[in-house]
Amino acid sequence: IGRGITGVAASASVSPRQRAMTAALLGAVGAVEWLDSESLIDAVTAVSGSGPAYIFYLTEALAKAGEAAGLPADLAGRLARATVEGSGELMRLSPELQPSKLRENVTSPGGTTAAALAVLMADDGLSPLMKDAVAAALRRAGELSG
Q: Is this prediction's pTM over 0.85?
């Protein structure tokens, strides 16, 4: 869909012309990020290459939580999908805002979102799970490439 990012590393022997050709070729399928070191390729894979599956799973989990709250499965699925799509679009349309700021903007102090975020942002919440998931993908990328 042309929305991905390809991480590329080039040695000093790669000419500016070769870099431009590489960027043009890879740019046909999405953005190109030049990395300072080839050692970062596996980390890019762990975050961006595997990242869509993380978001799909988050959507899946949100829909299942909606079902557990009493929503019909089809409605819960549509709500979860639309929420993720809309949130992604808001991030795309607001490049000057960090995701943390967007989160703060949609969170009313003492409201329902704040109550849910207290669970997700707890010491044993989503952040350490995501860190562990990315670390597992990074380890596996190293195994596959080495």
A: yes
